[in-house]
Every structure is written in C-alpha cells, then in structure tokens.
Design goal:
By secondary structure, the protein is mostly helical. The chain has a domain of 34 residues. It is 53% helix and 0% strand.
Length: 59
C-alpha cells in the first residue's frame, strides 16, 4: 500500500485536543458544530482532500 493510501495517524496530543473540543462543544449544546468537527476529523484521518483542518477553529 502506498503511503498516500494509508490513513493519517495523528499525535496523541492532537487526538486529546480534538476529544476535549468535541466534549466542550457538546456541553455547550453545540451538537451541530460537534458533528461538523467529527466529519472534518474523519475526512482528515482518511486523508480526504476535502478536509479543512488548516483553518483555525472559532472559539
């Protein structure tokens, strides 16, 4: 399998940050935002060119 065909394996601190961010969004009742972030992460992990994780997250 070529390296471009493999999913990304993010660093543990990135995964922890994303998990904390998802929990925070859900605690605020921002379920649509949490869902959108989950979809972006899924695209990124699957190495989809449509993922836009280079854009900063709004606080």
């Amino acid at each position: 399998m070529a390296s471009t065909d493999r999913p990304h394996h993010p660093e543990c601190e990135i995964v922890r940050y994303l998990e904390q961010r998802l929990l925070w969004l859900e605690q605020l009742g921002q379920h649509e935002c949490a869902f959108a972030l989950r979809m972006e992460v899924a695209d990124w992990l699957l190495a989809d060119g449509n993922a836009n994780l280079s854009a900063p997250l709004a606080h």
